[in-house]
Specification:
two-stranded antiparallel ribbon; 5 helices; mainly alpha; single chain; Four Helix Bundle (Hemerythrin (Met), subunit A)
């Protein structure tokens, strides 16, 4: 008889509610990594017919957006002034508004970038209290709480995970 799989969200922080959200982030990332299994080297930069993006462009974008929301929106620190700045030498979008066409980086580099950003996110959010997690931060054009940011990042990555699956299938992987 096989071992029964248990699907729960175990807290990853002092405040269980915050910890469960962080755990959900990790489950979503595991799903993304599973979607990336079997992606051949030549597929990372390829844009199949009907797409403006490659898998590499999508992965760069997912990491950049996560880092930007973490630093700029939650902590009020420009990403360029953070310890993650060196991972992001390129802008998110080109002059036409499309995702930057990131070329020449291996899947391993993209995965290291994603891991570096996630490590810092968990490190920075793990110690905050539930009250702080739900407290809005005043920004120029809106107020936003870390809880909403985490929700948004979960949704954002899930949407792009679907795009990655489509890009894989459209390229014959």
């Amino acid at each position: 008889m096989s071992e029964r799989e248990v699907r729960t969200l175990s807290p990853m922080a002092d405040a269980p509610e915050v910890g469960r959200w962080l755990s959900a982030m990790q489950v979503g990332r595991s799903d993304t990594l599973r979607e990336l299994q079997g992606v051949p080297v030549d597929l990372v930069d390829r844009r199949p017919p009907g797409s403006e993006n490659s898998i590499g462009a999508v992965l760069y974008h997912v990491a950049l957006i996560e880092a930007d929301w973490l630093f700029d929106d939650i902590f009020g620190i420009p990403l360029d002034d953070s310890e993650l700045a060196t991972w992001f030498p390129l802008e998110d979008r080109d002059p036409e508004g499309r995702l930057t066409d990131v070329r020449g980086e291996s899947l391993a580099v993209h995965l290291k970038r994603l891991a570096a950003v996630r490590e810092v996110l968990i490190e920075r959010l793990r110690p905050i209290s539930v009250d702080d997690f739900h407290a809005p931060r005043r920004r120029d054009h809106y107020d936003v709480s870390p809880a909403w940011v985490v929700h948004h990042l979960l949704q954002h990555e899930a949407e792009h995970r679907g795009e990655i699956g489509w890009l894989k299938r459209g390229s014959g992987a």
